[in-house]
Amino acid sequence: MLTRAELTEQAAATGRAAVSRPAAERVRPRRTPITWVRRGGLSKLVFTLPLLVVFGVFSWWPIARSVVMSFQRTNLVTAPLFVGWQNFEYVFHDPIFWVAVRNTGWFALLALVFGYPLPLVLAVIMSEVRRLKGLFSVLAYLPVVMPPVVSVLLWKFFYDARAEGVFNTILGWAGIPPQPWIQSTVAAMPSLVLQATWAAAGGTIIIYLAALTSVAPELYDAAEVDGAGIWGKIWHVTLPQLRGILFITLILQIIGTAQVFLQPFLFTNGGPVDSTTTILLLVYRYAFTNSLGGNYGAATALSLMLAVFLALMSVLYFRLTRRWSDA
Amino acid sequence: MKSRKVIAALAIAAVGVGLLAGCSSSSDASAKDGKVYLTVAPVLPGATADALKALSDRVKEFEKANPDIIVKPIEYQWTGTTFAAELAGGTLPDVFNVPFTDSKTLANNGQLADITADFRKTSTAGKWNKNVLDVATGKDGKIYGIPWGPYAMALSYNREIFTKAGLDPDKPPTTLDEIEADAKTIAEKVPGTAGYMQMTSGNTGGWELATLTNSLGGRFETIGKDGKVTVKTDNPQTKQALAWLAKLRWDDNAMGSNFLFDWSGINQAFASGQVAMYMSGSDVIGSLMQANGFDQTKYGVTTFPLSDSSDAGILSGGNVDVVNVKDSPAQIAAAVKWIDFYRTQPTVDKAAAIKNAQTLKAGNQAVNAPTLPVFDKATWQQNQSWIAPYDNIPTANLKPFTDGIFDQQIVPEPSAHTQDLYGALDSVVQAVLTKKNVDVDAQLKAVDQKIQALVDADQG
């Protein structure tokens, strides 16, 4: 990875080259390898090489390989066999596929309704707090610092469905009977969303807090002069000013929740009765749950379908929101 | 100035390429110092300090006898849902274990090292029962592993909780009705404790449902005269098994409140007193002591009850220690020596058995966890008499099992697409335990259809 200083230098080098190019081209119209080297082409290439190699080896090559694999039947030992669209057909005919699509949609929707507004509300409140601002920021960000697996295992313990469980004990103080949490087909998914929201909110809060500092205080003063109350200020000043950030965090959240894996994998392994089996968990199951080697073709086919869907959705999203973002 | 920049650029490129080279460099134990390096996997993740000490002593003993071999033990647990990832990722150690159901297919797929030549050099090579060794024999007739620790499914129970509930721990249940009655009593008398529970997740739900089905005389898969496998989980015995679970859960409320348990999860719940009785392999006390620090004096085990049907039998299984296919011939030779030392010798050689028992006892690890004979009953009994002075699990606690097991008919696990079948049945078991009045017929039919399609695709 390049450090920030290296990136700046690289950018500066690129900028210089770009500026000097028109003059150079007037003097020497023919492009030869030597002129390319003299103009800094080599150092540019050398500077970008580590990045290209790292991305190429660890990102682009595996992506290309998985696209190919989605049309193959392979056990990773013997030579793969091209099977056309068979893997895609297999996925579409698997009844669990539609269950997984529904579950992923349900998770994304719950996370959107409860998880999306929460960081914004908290950030607005925190930006209004005068004292102990640092402490609140730390408290909000703490879950993000915790290793995700550790926090899930901790919450699994909290979600113990016995009356002796941590959350059930707390509910008991208020006279509420013990809840099944992740042990029921109905309550499992909302329980997963609750933990996921807790785990991720801190990161988004920090982004919103940073964005809020860039809102010019004069706008609030002007709104106040015009007779706006606290809600009026939030509605007419804060939200419009954060519009760009809100659009970005929304699409990032949708992409993130569509790929949810950690919570269903660690909390419930997709259960009870596939009520938390998500698309990514199904990909994992296709590939790995058969100890004798899985259906890697179906796994990559489903991954590819998800990737294409998310890419198309992102394009559509940016098309739709461009007008509002620019306004 | 410019040349300095070029040097800096080259340096960055060199570091980048170096990093990548580091990633891809093989971690093969090259014997530069003339020694053979061997990574073995004999302990479960989270093993207690005592367990690690006992293991370390055994490793030292092996290295003393084989000064050219350096053994590095790591934590490992075979689970149906993670093994393929480790295999595909190339992260398996030199020696690891797989269950009886998998070794043959892995061998035939070329995913295990051929150990025939080195296996023949072991002192026990001629002693093996062909039927037992068959699980580790490929279709080419070569040997790909060494079996160990065969077990029968059994009913483990917490004697302390039995006493607390007013039950006699020396008289464990002997029928499904008695399990139900005792479970109900425990759930009523000891709040927060599940009277009876079984595994439901990570392919173990199907495994345990197979045990229940077999115990009632049913089978998940039948093999026709033409060798064609028919999958039929939609059978009267499986339905009876599921109805029994539903009764325990919904009528008796005797299965607690947590219904998502895999193998290690339920061991944890049992060790912490949240589950009073559960279905498990007969040797599970070894793992309970190794990974959960469970007090073996509280442990009780009995045979899992069989019905009167002449087809009723107890599901059995076991492990095969196999060698990584990427290993060098020297490593394969060392690996076979290690497996023979660590697994086989303590079952046949008096001195090795006693030494092993002493080390285990000193490390507070199970000496006399009940297993099935790996060779024959006579060898097994002789072995039991050698280690008897070091027994650290009260033999009276094991008696209900050891007295009954040799009268039970042993049934192997279903052979075709075992893990796929088990995985598909996880959902059915979970449905019965988390939803009232489930249409099990439809669910079992769907499982049959799905797994039969996989089987037919193989046989097609």
From TrEMBL, chain A:
<keyword id="KW-1003">Cell membrane</keyword>
<feature type="domain" description="ABC transmembrane type-1">
    <location>
        <begin position="101"/>
        <end position="317"/>
    </location>
</feature>
<feature type="transmembrane region" description="Helical">
    <location>
        <begin position="242"/>
        <end position="262"/>
    </location>
</feature>
<dbReference type="InterPro" id="IPR051393">
    <property type="entry name" value="ABC_transporter_permease"/>
</dbReference>
<feature type="transmembrane region" description="Helical">
    <location>
        <begin position="296"/>
        <end position="318"/>
    </location>
</feature>
<keyword id="KW-0472">Membrane</keyword>
<dbReference type="InterPro" id="IPR035906">
    <property type="entry name" value="MetI-like_sf"/>
</dbReference>
<protein>
    <submittedName>
        <fullName>Sugar ABC transporter permease</fullName>
    </submittedName>
</protein>
<dbReference type="InterPro" id="IPR000515">
    <property type="entry name" value="MetI-like"/>
</dbReference>
<feature type="transmembrane region" description="Helical">
    <location>
        <begin position="106"/>
        <end position="126"/>
    </location>
</feature>
<feature type="transmembrane region" description="Helical">
    <location>
        <begin position="45"/>
        <end position="63"/>
    </location>
</feature>
<feature type="transmembrane region" description="Helical">
    <location>
        <begin position="138"/>
        <end position="158"/>
    </location>
</feature>
<keyword id="KW-0813">Transport</keyword>
<feature type="transmembrane region" description="Helical">
    <location>
        <begin position="192"/>
        <end position="211"/>
    </location>
</feature>
<comment type="similarity">
    <text>Belongs to the binding-protein-dependent transport system permease family.</text>
</comment>
<dbReference type="Pfam" id="PF00528">
    <property type="entry name" value="BPD_transp_1"/>
</dbReference>
<keyword id="KW-1133">Transmembrane helix</keyword>
<keyword id="KW-0812">Transmembrane</keyword>
<feature type="region of interest" description="Disordered">
    <location>
        <begin position="1"/>
        <end position="24"/>
    </location>
</feature>
UniProtKB/TrEMBL annotation, chain B:
<feature type="signal peptide">
    <location>
        <begin position="1"/>
        <end position="31"/>
    </location>
</feature>
<dbReference type="InterPro" id="IPR006059">
    <property type="entry name" value="SBP"/>
</dbReference>
<dbReference type="Pfam" id="PF13416">
    <property type="entry name" value="SBP_bac_8"/>
</dbReference>
<dbReference type="InterPro" id="IPR050490">
    <property type="entry name" value="Bact_solute-bd_prot1"/>
</dbReference>
<keyword id="KW-0732">Signal</keyword>
<protein>
    <submittedName>
        <fullName>Extracellular solute-binding protein</fullName>
    </submittedName>
</protein>
